[in-house]
Design goal:
With about 55 residues, this protein is mostly helical. It has one domain. It has 2 helices and no strands.
Amino acid sequence: MDSGKERSDEVEGLRLIRAFLLLPPDKRAEVIAFVEELARAHGRPEEGTQASPR
């Protein structure tokens, strides 16, 4: 990955974090629940189990 693309991804990540932090607490909870559901749907190991290294 070239440096420009990496920096662009970094900036986008920071924007997403900032947007999340600006949400009211009830909306944050909705986002967290949505992401947890996505993680379960994609076969993420349950809490307390080891994830295999990539």
